[in-house]
Amino acid sequence: MRAADTFPTNKIQDLAYRAGRIFPFGATIVDDGVNFSIFSKESTGCTLLLYHHGEKDPYVEIPFPEEFRIGDVYTMMVFGISIETTEYGYRFDGEYEPKKGILFDKNNILLDPYAKSVSGRTVWGREPDPENSFSHRGQIIREDYDWDGDKPLEIPQNDLTVYEMHVRSFTRDQSSGVRHKGTYAGIVEKIPYLKELGINCVELMPVFEFDEFENSRVVDGRRLVNYWGYSTVCFFAPKAGYAASAPFGMEADELKNLIKKLHKNGIEVILDVVFNHTAEGNENGPSISYKGIDNRTYYLLTPDGWYYNFSGCGNTMNCNNAVVRNHILDCLRYWVASYHVDGFRFDLASILTRDADGAPMMSPPLIESLAHDAVLGSTKLIAEAWDAGGLYQVGSFPSWNRWAEWNGKYRDCVRRFVKGDAGCAPEIYHRISGSDDLYGSRSPAVSVNFITCHDGFTMYDLVSYNEKHNEANGEDNRDGSNENDSWNCGVEGDTDDAEINRLRIRQMKNMYTLLLTSRGVPMLLSGDEFANTQFGNNNAYCQDNEISWLDWKRLDEYRDLYAYVRGLNLFRKAHPVMRADRFDTGHNGTGYPELSFHGTVPWEIDRCQPTLTFAYMYAEDHVKFGTDRDMFIYVAVNAHWEDHTFILPIIPASMKWHLVADSNGCVRECGKEAELEDQKQMNLGARSMVILTGC
To answer: Where is the composition biased (Basic and acidic residues) (predicted)?
Structure first.
């Protein structure tokens, strides 16, 4: 039986239409029709355009009658649409005064900001038709995916081990061995690998629709593209070019299938989201959507109508405007409800704390709204707590006890210390402790610890290059950070010197030893576990080639490194004391402090002095942490270029020290640890680390 408010009242060509429902925004399937709803505060008129799929011109244009506008919302129901073969867009009438920031132009055809699918980019790398001025068209999808009982996993944040990946890079190379290379489906084929590695959360670099041909250019015969996707075209639509099934209109289902399969294997999904700017750029950029719909609402503008550029990408979204704030909330709710996403990492999140003039706010409404939102109640929220305008908020990002942070201070400190900066010692104790100096009133789980990520050197390049080598980007090596805290171990780039190569592997293992035995949430960069290289490029944002693609042949070449990382992941999983979600410096049921720091002599350490040698010990209380027995975990650290002897702490007489991991060698399986012959002291070689257990 049809609802009374879905009886058509008007007709155009073969279509019937009537006033629609305001909510939800976007294009929503209703009784025998589609409800279109879109906001525009300052426009004087709006027209809906409907296209047959792939056709250049619309088959019908329907102006919204004035009575179809309520407040600042145009809404209309249209009946008789063939949903599977229809694309749509909008025209807006209004004033055109760039110096006022008003950019209405009825000749522009605009993309619905709430479109759930965007046509025109279904095949990655297929160049757009230059004759088509409206290449980003909205498509209507049926929300009928069978989740088979799935829901977000809600793994406690302190139990996560995060694995950051680029959807295309992960399997695009021939060496990946998957059928659907560079796609969501390709990742599904690698789920057994992810499980074996021991991670339980993947963080996907941007999967919202973007245009890989934005700022595309040819350098030295190679096509460079917008490869990373940090330039969103539509926040509600998945990147169709990442789906093997996109030519059949199935990109949404393919991404949902990936998430469902990951969940079935105990792996959460966090999306890297970019709300700080859009693909429309500055005054010279295209008008794709927001500019032509309501420029002054969606962007931060100067009094002269220019774009503030705190993102470094041309424009900055007006995130704390009430309309924009609700737009972002609607988006995140949609991805949690319709895609079962477990969390979000917010790119350049400090921008989200700025007001309409660009000034930082003490209590930004958007951040508070996200923290307290009912739908997002169990969703992970992670801030990249800085922006391109110099606002650095690591340790001070507004949180309401809900937000975690990418801990850039952890990255910088560990890099400097491992390469030999003794002055970092007083800081590194805090970083290992879960950054209690930054998050002491909250939890170690607030700190997402990482040493490498998509932005910068890979782990292998961190120990193989002193300088960045971004010449292939065509910017005369000016792009990318100059401050990498890297050390090439004696030779720039690849070498046949066996001693240098052994040192590099040991240095990578040293960093992993610290990362995976620190409190907080560890994050690994995909491919680092088998020494993937970008050949010294620390800003591969434009490289759709072997610079960015993971070379899976290196998994065999660096199997020892992979086994070490996997072993540490399993070791961390087995010992909840390292994953504690609170700061506890007192003694526990073992009679020892839960976490203590030592010099080469137990209990003797001046935490204010520079050093390259120290140790730390966890005391795992079996009652408190629910394990089978009390255990001690002792990590000895020697970042010096000389050997040092460590006196071992005295533990209960019934216990013995056993060797678990040695960065000169391997990680031993649980139950196969080697009991030390000398229970009183051990010699630790230059630039190496070991993990002992006392049990």
So the answer is: 471-481
